[in-house]
Amino acid sequence: MVLTLMRGKSTSADTKLLKANPDLRPERLDTYEVGADYAPLPGLKISPSLFYSKGWDFIYSVDSGQTATVAGYLPNRHIYQNQNVSSVDIYGAEAEATYASGPATLSAAYTFNRSRIKKCSQNPYLNGNYLANAPQNQAGVTAGWRFPWLDASASWRYKGGQFYDDANTQTINPYSTLAFKVLRRLGAGVTIAAAMENALNKRYQESPPPGTPNTTPDLAPGRMGKASLAWEF
Questions:
Q1: Helix (H), strand (E) at residue 219
Q2: At residue 213, does pLDDT exceed 50?
Q3: In Å, how far are 63, 69, 120, 134, 160 from 128, measured between CA atoms?
Q4: pLDDT > 90 fraction of the chain, expressed in percent and rounded
Q5: How buried is 69 (Cβ within 10 angstroms: 0-12 exposed, 13-18 middle, 19+ buried)?
């Protein structure tokens, strides 16, 4: 059982609307991955890997070219529809390193991902385009310390730039965030925790303008606090 309380502020609204498609076919995705674990020093582990995925009838949201007004005050929201893309190629690399020494832990990870549409029979103009909402670069670092009375950690996350639309004409800027978390175990399966996400209160971009002049991008919530009480039984 978990009880969670959150406090923050959001003014963002997604610029996309999704239209149902009853003619969708099941997609197929074949994935190949090779990796290794390497421990050059006590407490240190390095894990690199490479991956490649080939998708057929890949389900993907495609802009229908139509727009609509939502709730009477959100104009020019693009109407998208899930369609089967003939084939896509997804490949990249990942690397993760972890180090533990006594009460201290440190981990870092990096992912490179390149996802492209190889062939789209229904919309040939998409051939060769990158998949939307698939950043090529992502990274993160987390440092933790276990005190006798609680656990504490700090995390930094980076997400690189990405395309927002299937035509690759709208982009979302890269951003990074900082977060903190503390956790205490009270016994009898009870745990309390508190966290602060986006501690530097960055209003980073979540989507581009909806297409009308003199508009601003939808922005993510700023600093957000979270408290939770969990009981395992």
A1: strand 218-219
A2: no
A3: 16, 31, 9, 14, 20
A4: 52
A5: exposed
**Ramachandran angles phi, psi of 125, nearest 5°:** -65, -15
Q: What angle do CA 34, 141, 14 make, to 5 degrees?
A: 90
List the beta bridge partners of residue 17.
79
- The tokens describing 170, both together, are 């709208």
The structure tokens 């205490």 sit at: 184
Closest by CA position to 32, among listed 7, 9, 51: 51
Question: Tell me, what's the pLDDT at 214?
Answer: 46
Domain boundary assignment for the chain: 14-231
**Per-residue pLDDT for 6 more than 60?**
no
Query: For residue 93, how many other CB atoms are within 10 A of its CB?
Result: 14
The CATH class of 14-231 is mainly beta
Closest alpha carbon to 224 in 203, 193, 201, 190: 201
- Whether the pLDDT of residue 57 is over 80: the answer is yes
Q: Assess whether pLDDT exceeds 60 at residue 7.
A: no
Instruction: Give the number of other CB atoms < 10 A from CB of residue 63.
Output: 19
